[in-house]
Amino acid sequence: MTDVSDVKRAARKAAFARRKAAHEAAGPAEAAYLSEVLAGYRGVPLSGYMAIRTEIDPRPAMEEAAAHGPVCVPVIQRLGLPLKFSRWTPGCALKEGPFGAMIPEVDEFIEPEILIVPLVAFDRRGGRLGYGGGFYDRTLEMLRAKRPTLAIGFAYAAQEASGLPLEPTDQPLDMVVTERGVIEMG
Questions:
Q1: pLDDT tens column, 140-171
Q2: CA-CA distance, 30 to 58, in Å (whole number)?
């Protein structure tokens, strides 16, 4: 019998291939729907991310949001810990963080109430397949224990999968935004 980690590994491999093809075909307005969603939450502390490899890039939406309230990006402290979030502003000085993602050169940690979450694959039940480190699951669990926290998956439509292999520790997404539209969960 195959265990869930083998199933997740195979699902990740297939999803990376779909994401790469979508990334290569992407147009300039890929964050338009994300901007529309975030417009309804002006001023709420928000975490985006600095895209790596073939991830869809949320920066245009982050730049718009930064004009209305605090925006931050995730900073990995070390394996096994939740993420911390350092304030980001358009044009701020950046340095390379763990796994190649750029982070602000000067840390000013804040706690977001909305997280734009990168992913490898998603399903319509709110399931998310990440890179396997559990960083977002631990972080969302911690933040949601304190206050309502909105998790918005941001992905190419091609990254949708039917029925991902999920574990009890996996934190659900509240919605997924793609270059084609918004998918509400629940």
A1: 999 999 999 999 999 999 999 998 988 899 99
A2: 8
8 A C-beta contact, residue 47 and residue 112: yes
**The two three-digit tokens of residue 51, written as one number:** 């895209």
Asked if 38 contacts 154 with a C-beta cutoff of 8 angstroms, the reply is no
Residue showing tokens 């972080």: 139
Burial of 115 (C-beta count, 10 Å sphere; 0-12/13-18/19+): buried
For the chain, the domains span 4-184
SS3 141: helix
Average pLDDT, the chain: 92
| Amino acid letter, 94 | L
Question: In whole angstroms, how large is the CA radius of gyration of the chain?
Answer: 16
CATH of 4-184, one of 3.10.20.30, 3.20.20.70, 3.40.50.10420, 3.40.50.2000: 3.40.50.10420
Percentage helix, strand, coil for the chain under 3-state DSSP, each rounded to 5: 30, 20, 50
Q: Distance (Å, rounded) from C-alpha 83 to C-alpha 14?
A: 26
